[in-house]
Write a structure and sequence with these properties.
alpha/beta; seven-stranded parallel beta sheet
Amino acid sequence: MTEPVLGARHREVDRLRRLTRRATERSAAGLFVVEGPTLVAAALAAAAPLEAVYVAAPNGRKFEDLLARATAAGVPVRELAPGVLERVADTATPQGVVALCRSVTVGLDAIATGGFVLVGVDVADPGNAGTMIRAADATGARAVVFTGTSVDVTNPKVVRAAAGSLFHLPVVAARRPDPPIPEVDEGESAGAAAVLRALAASGRRLVGAAAHAGEASDVADLTGDLAIVVGNEAHGLPPSLALDGFVHVPMEGRAESLNVAVAAAILCYESARQRRGARRD
């Protein structure tokens, strides 16, 4: 690292701060922040389009191997002055290194025809969204789609909760504009209904997750070309959505419902279990 150390007032530091904190900045720049050595290493391993890596002084020697990998991949490495990363990072105790990555989300037309996808409609919590991406990746989903008023998938909390899966699995961010564009009918353009119609047109069955409605997950058919659709943490799925059916996770205790990310993960794993059984048969 022969470049000068970047102080708190440097323009690159100011950009890092804005990209960390503002979804509008991330959308306009087509960039998002990857925090911590584990996630930066995952991004490098996946050949993600990193723009730069920033290391907090005096951590250069601690992350020597990681920084060497970045340099070998052609990614510029910049050093931040002591105390600067603490003013930039989203976490209370930064881990000493962050990176800027160009957008890795894709459009609906980039999803391969057939197979299983997980869809989140109006998923608000970034931790839930990231966990859903991770569970979908672990269970062999073709993609994850977020639509409606779902959280921005480049939110630093989403990126951390996804634990590297954001770099392994196609993620579609077909979110409704916020605020909505007056000239566009959100239900027909970027809304959940239009997204689900596109998935149905690709030959997938649309199965909505519900607290109690529909078949139990252990008896429902979750094989084949399928989209499992989960809704908002508080309100579930909008009743206006056209779905082929519903499925619920059977519960034997007194809990009224499950966290949306937990329910999504259970349904993903049940689908994976059934697909394995179908292959054996």
